[in-house]
Amino acid sequence: MGIEVVVEGLTKSFGKQNIWQDVSLTLPAGEVSVMLGPSGTGKTVFLKSIIGLLKPEQGRVLINGVDMVNSPEREIMETRKLFGLMFQDGALFGSMSLFDNIAFPLREHTRKKESEIRRIVMERIDIVGLLGAEEKLPGEISGGMRKRAGLARALVLDPQIILCDEPDSGLDPVRTAYLSQLLIDLNAQIDATMLIVTHNLDIAATVPDNMGMLFCRNLVTFGPREVLLTSDMPVVSQFLAGRREGPIGMSEEKDAATLAAEQLNGTGPGAGPRSVVPQLEPSPGMPVRQGALRRRERVMSMMGQLPQAARTAILNSYTPAPGGGRL
Amino acid sequence: MTAPLPVRPAGEPADRVPADATPRQKPPSRLLAPLRETGKLFALAAAVTRAIFRRPFQVREFIEQFWFVASVTILPAALVSIPFGAVIALQVGSLTEQLGAQSFTGGASVLAVIQQASPLIVALLISGAAGSAICADLGSRKIREELDAMEVMGVSPIQRLVVPRVLATMLVAVLLNGLVSVVGTLGGYFFNVIMQGGTPGAYLASFSALAQLPDLYIGEFKALVFGFIAGIVAAYRGLNPRGGPKGVGDAVNQSVVITFMLLFFVNMVLTAIYLQIVPAKGS
Fold first, then answer.
1. What is the ipTM of this complex?
2. Do the chains contact at B149 and A91, CB–CB below 8 Å?
3. Of A266, A316, B101, B231, whose CA is between 20 and 30 Å from A101?
4. CA–CA separation, B147 vs B158, rounded Å?
C-alpha cells in the first residue's frame, strides 16, 4: 500500500519572486491525485519540492516521518528510493540505451543478478509498449517514447509514491488516453500513491481521485475530484472549461479592472452546472483498486463538509460498484 | 478545504511580496558573491573528499574516466614536453656557458623540468583537455535534468559521477607527470648534447650533484594536487551552469580559466614552501 504524503505550509520563492505560499495538503495513501494549474504557476516546482530537489523556505513535506525539506541529506536520499518520478521530457541518460536507462536504478540499488534485471526491465518495457526499442539511445526515439521510457524507469523499483510531471505533453490524444488508463491500471496493481501534475483536461476529468489547483501563488483548493469538477469558483470553472473569460489571463492573472470590464460586457464566467465524467476504471482482469475503496470511506465520512453539488456528484458516482469491481 | 480566491487588485506589481508573509532575510550583498562561490567550491571539495571513502566505489566509471582522461592527454603531453625540455636546456646551457659552469647544465635543466615544467605541463593539459571535457559532460547532463533524475533515484551524482572523475584526473596527473619528466629530460639531454655540443658524461653526472629525490617527490605531489584541483573546479562549474546550452559553454570556459589561475597560484605557494623546508643539495 502506498504512503501518505503530508505537505504543511510550504512556501517557495526564487529570489524575490514568490512562487507559491502556504500550500498545505495531504495526498491520501494509494490514491491518485492531480495538481492542476495554468502554465507557470509552479506545478513542477511543487513536484520537485515534494521529492526534495528544491528546498522551500518554509513548511514541511512529511513522508514516513522524514521531512523532505529539512531532514539530513542521508535520510532524504534513502526516502527517495520510495519514489518514482516521471520527468517532463523523460530525463533519460543520453549516453545509455533505453535498457540500461531503465535498469539503472536496479543496478544501483539492488544486488540482483543480470538475468533477473533483464526480466524485470523487459516486463516494464512491455507495460509501456516499448518492446523492440530497448537497444536504442534516447536521442534516437520520439518524445512520446522518451516519456514512456521515463515512466518505465520510474516504475522499475516498485515505488510507493509515483509523481508524474505533465505525462501528456508531447503525446497525441490517443496515447494520452492510453497513458491515463495505464496510470489507473498501475495504481490498481501496485497501490502506489500518485500525484500527476498536468493541465490536460481529459486527464484531470477522468483519472484522479483527488484534485488540487494552483493559481496566483496559492493552492486554490484541494479535495475529492467532484469538489473541483462541480466547483463554481471562477478560476476553477474557467480552467476546466478552457474559456478566456475569467480571472486567468494570458500572463497568469488578469487585474481587477479587466475582470470588471469583462463582467460589464456580459462576457463574465458563464455559470452552469457541468457534468461530472465518470472516473476511469482499471482494465478488465486488473485487481480492484484498494485506493478507491479507501477513498470511498474517506469521502463518505467527510460528506458533511462538502458543497451540495459535490455531494450529489459523489452519491451519483457511487451508485454503481466502486473501485472497478466488476460484479 | 477551499481558500478564498486570490484576485490581484488593479495596479500593483506582479511580484509584490505579500504583506502577510514573514520577513525574509535581506537580499545577499553583491560584494560577497565571489566569497560565496569560493565557499561553494570548497564545500564541493569537502563533499567529494568524504564521498571518496563511501561505499560502493564506482570502479567501472573510474576506469572509463581514467582511460578517457589518459587518452586525451598522453600524446599532447609528450609532444609538448620535448620542446619544453629543449628550451630549458638551451636557455640554461647558454647561461651556464657564460658563467663558466657548463658541467652543471644537466643538473640545472633537470631540476627545472622536474620541479616546475613538468607539473605545469600536466596542469595545463589536465585542465585544458580533461577538465573542459568533464565540465561540458556534467554541464550538459545538468541542463538535461539527468543529474536531477539521478538524485531522484536516490543516487548521489557526486558519488556516482564526480568522485570517479576527480580520482581519474588525480591518478592521470601523477602518471603523466612521470611521463613528462622523462620525456622532458630526454629532450633536454638531446638538445644539450647534440645541438650545443655538451658532454654526455658531465650532463648525467651533474644530475646527482644538484638534484635529489625530494625534487621528484614534490613534482609528483604537485601533479596530484593539480589533478585534484582541476577535477574539482571542472565538476563545480559543470554542476552549476547558468541557463541553457550557452551556460554550459561559458562554464567550460570559466572552468579552464579558473583552474589555470588556481594552479599557477598553488604552484607558487608549494614551491615557496618546498624551498623553505627542503634544503638544497650540498648546502
1. 0.76
2. yes
3. B231
4. 10
Total domain count, chain A: 1
Using CA atoms, how far apart are residues B250 and A101, in angstroms rounded to an integer? 29
A291 φ/ψ sector (left φ>0, alpha ψ -120 to 50, else beta): alpha
Cα–Cα distance between A212 and A302 in angstroms, integer? 17
Q: Which of B266, B98, B270, B81 shows the shortest CA–CA distance to B191?
A: B81
Residue in chain B nearest A217 by alpha carbon: B6
- In angstroms, the CA B239 to CA A186 distance is 35
pLDDT (0 to 100) of residue B229:
93
- CB atoms inside a 10 Å sphere around CB B103: 16
**CA distance to partner chain B, nearest, from residue A171 (Å):** 19
Listed by number, the residues of chain A in 112-151 with a beta carbon closer than 8 Å to a beta carbon of chain B are none
Confidence band, pLDDT 50/70/90 cuts, at residue A319 = confident
For the stretch B231-263, pLDDT in tens is 999 999 999 888 788 889 999 999 999 998 898
Residue whose C-alpha is closest to residue B155's, from A153, A44, A136, A146: A153
Q: Is A253 on the interface with B (CB under 8 A)?
A: yes
Beta bridge pairs of residue B10: none
Range(s) of the domain holding residue A137: 94-153
Instruction: Write the pLDDT tens digit of every residue in B156-206.
Output: 889 889 999 999 999 999 999 999 988 888 888 888 888 777 788 888 888
Q: Is B26 on the interface with A (CB under 8 A)?
A: no
The domain ranges of chain B are 57-275
Torsion sign (Cα): B85, B86, B91, B97: positive
Q: Which has the higher per-residue pLDDT, B208 or A155?
A: A155
**Cβ-Cβ contacts under 8 Å, B68 against chain A:** none
- Alpha-carbon distance of A272 to B34, in angstroms, equals 59
Say whether B3 and A108 touch across the interface (CB within 8 A): no
CA-based nearest residue to A255, from A244, A264, A247: A247
Three-state SS string over chain B comes to: CECCCCCCCCCCCCCCCCCCCCCCCCCCCHHHHHHHHHHHHHHHHHHHHHHHCCCCCCHHHHHHHHHHHHHHHHHHHHHHHHHHHHHHHHHHHHHHHHHCCHHHHHHHHHHHHHHHHHHHHHHHHHHHHHHHHHHHHHHHHHHCCHHHHHHHCCCCHHHHHHHHHHHHHHHHHHHHHHHHHHHHHHHHHHHHHHHCCCCHHHHHHHHHHHCCHHHHHHHHHHHHHHHHHHHHHHHHHHHCCCCHHHHHHHHHHHHHHHHHHHHHHHHHHHHHHHHHHCCCCCC
- Report the C-alpha gap between B26 and B102 in whole angstroms: 67
Cα A236-A240-A241 angle, rounded to 5 deg: 115
Q: Which residues contact B130 (CB under 8 A, 6 or more apart)?
A: B68, B69, B72, B73, B168, B169, B172, B230, B231, B234
B 125-184 residues with CB < 8 A to A: 140-141, 144-146, 148-156, 160
Q: Which of B90, B113, B273 is nearest to B184 (CA)?
A: B113
